[in-house]
Structure formats: structure tokens, C-alpha cells
Amino acid sequence: MLTSQDIRGFLIGVALLAVVAATWAAGFLYAPVDANQGEIYRIIFLHVPSAITSFATAFGLFVFSVWGLKSRSEGALVWGRAAAEVGLLYTVLTLASGSIWGKPTWGVWWTWDARLTTTFLLALLYAAYLLLYSSLTPGPGRVRVLSVLGLIITIDVPVIYKSVTWWRTLHQPPSMLREGGSSMDPEILRTLVTAIFVMIAAAIWLIVLRARNLKLRDELEGASYVQMAG
Predict the structure, then answer these.
(1) How far is residue 87's CA from residue 61's CA, in Å, rounded to a whole number?
(2) pLDDT digits (tens, 9 = 90+) for 55-64
(3) Distance (Å, whole) CA 70 – CA 51
(4) Is the pTM of this model over 0.90?
(5) For the chain, what are the domain ranges?
(6) Span 87-104, mean pLDDT?
(7) In 30, 102, 103, 227, which residue has its Cα 20 to 30 A from 171's Cα atom?
């Protein structure tokens, strides 16, 4: 039987997905054409929000990792796993959309560019977190190992962001946050910022929903174990 919490979560999800679809429609159909890249630039409304959301998710994982180190709580790992799953999803979206953008602009689907490499590393770290969560025995040791890994994952985020200024890369320098203000068309910028906030909101909803499902699964498994032992 559905609870009021289930119904509320479902309605929030439907509303968020509708707003995401509307934002993408605005970016892909109504935003002005870029003077330099033409129509292909429109992938930016998926690529950049996905990238920034994967960074925001890493920050969430950082918070849960600090919580885990301080409390040694398995509850922190539940939230950490949910954040890592959603972070991996958005990082894969970032890499996929970046490849689609890179083919017509760079002539290749993939190159070991500094930003691409560090973003790929982020995906591997998220995957490693999930693999360790499943393979390690529950307890303080697992909490400690995964919390430390969560902190390491967060360290990769500023490296990704600064990679275009630290090394020579194919990526252009920051065009949104830079000295002298953004170089983007105001209408494109407004649509892009809206897409970023909407994607982050969707990620928060996914993390909350996934953490709730993981907690429910653990409770059911615990009840089943007690019943079998009895």
C-alpha cells in the first residue's frame, strides 16, 4: 500500500522530470544558435548540467563521508552509496554527451585530454566505491574505508575544474565563471543556469529516493534474517 510519503515523492519526481524536459526543450529548440559552433553547441544544455551535477553529488558524498568517519554509522554509507550511484550516472552522461560534442568539433569521439581523463577517473572512483560497498563486510572497517574513498573522490572535482588552466587541453577556458563576467549570450546563459539548477534538484530527489529504498531493503533483509533465525 502506498503511503503519503510515497505519493509525495512520486509527484515531486514527475514534476522534476517535467521541468527537466521543458528546460531541455528550451535549450534544444528555442535558445539562439551559437555564432561559432552553430547547432551542435546545444548539447551544452545536457553536458554542462550533467558535469556540474556530478560535482555537486561528489560534494554530497563528501558530507556523508565526513559523517561516516565521525559516527562510524552504516546509515552514512547508505546515503553515500545513493550519492555514488547518482554521481556515476551523471558522470557517464557527462562523458557520453562530451563525446557527442567532441566528434564534430574535435574530429574524434575520445582523446586523453586532461579534463576528459580526470572526469573518466571520477567515473572509475564512483564505480570503485560501489564495488567496495558490495564486496566489503558491513561494519566499522567498511565505513572507514568507504568514507576515506569518498573524500578522495571529492578531491578529484577541483582537479577536473582547474584542468583547463593547469594543463594544455582541447577544452575551452571557463566561459560562465570568469573575470569580467560571462562571455555567453545572456539568453543561452539563463537557459543553461536553469538547466543546471533543475538537474541538481533531480539528483537530490534521486539520492533521497534511492537512500530510502536502500534503508527499506536493509530493514526487510534484517527482519527476514531474524525470522529465519527464530
Answers:
(1) 9
(2) 999 999 999 9
(3) 29
(4) no
(5) 12-28+40-169+183-229
(6) 92
(7) 30
